[in-house]
Amino acid sequence: MQKKRYGLIALSILLGSVTSAKADISFSIGLPSVSIGVRSPNMSVGINLSMFPQLAPVPGYPVYYAPQVNANYFFYDGMYWVYQDDNWYASTWYNGPWDFVEPEVVPLFVLRIPVCYYRQPPVYFRGWQSNAPPRWDQHWGPQWQQRRGGWDRWNRKSVPSRAPLPVYQRQFSGDRYPHQVEQQHKLRSQSYRYQPRDKAVQQQFKRHVEHRPSAPVQRDQKQQIEQRQHNQRQQVEQRQHEQKQQVEQKQHEQKQQFEQRQHDQRKQVEQKQHEQRKQVEQKQQREQQAPRAQERGQKQDRGDSQEHKRGRGQDQDRDDNRGHGRDK
Fold this sequence. Notes:
By secondary structure, the chain is α+β, with helices and mostly antiparallel strands. The protein has two domains: 2-238, no CATH class; 251-284. It has helices spanning 2-20, 108-111, 136-147, 181-191, 199-209, 215-218, 221-327, and strands spanning 56-57, 63-65, 73-76, 79-84, 87-91, 99-101. The longest helix is centred in the C-terminal third of the chain and has 107 residues, at 221-327. The radius of gyration is 45 Å and the shape is rod-shaped. It starts with a helix and ends with a helix.
């Protein structure tokens, strides 16, 4: 049953990836008139909100998340970040347009956001520690790990301060939302003077403002989709295999523990039975020895009585003999 459920989930992920390359996708994520939309040369996928979302700080991190948005939606260092369909996207405005971000250049503090702040965690997040970052090294593999080594280690006492929220964007909702990047940048420069401090964010900000899509978007979309589907199938199969091994290992350990308990119980029963038999045998021996001792005592008493009588008889004879001698 569990395998079927994971299979359906994996299939839905794959279908979602294929569909995203052909047309826009839309679904409700907890706010009015919400749809998906990420900018690329020939397609639109990702997050679009009809109004400025409520953002709350992630404790201990220079990051905000959107608790009322049913999506993996964050704000870090002056830009919005979304994790959707196994990809990261970024924008300078709350509902896009969104640009694809290579896994190798996603800002470190975005990667470090704990699992519990993902409002729509992927299926492969299951079993991961909720108050720790996702295991990106396992998900993206050793090649990514080599390029991003140490991503999950940092001095928690020197975490940078959070960037101020671009609250000026609240007044631009619905039909007033500026969809053109040029217009967005102009409004931003007028009302939001904060500049990114993270080098990775600086590069993404420059790319976004200059309308330069990242390299993967420029590559053949069909190859990207096929590769992503292949990776997702492998990940699902690997997780199913690991879960199966864990279940089998647990069953094996439980069986061993049960057999050990049975063995210990048998030994205890046998030991108790042995002690009981020993007690019974000792009792029987005592009962058998008691009449013999009594009989020996009786024989000893009779022997002493007879000896006493013989002694008295001999004394009497001596006395008689002495009397006869005097009479003569």
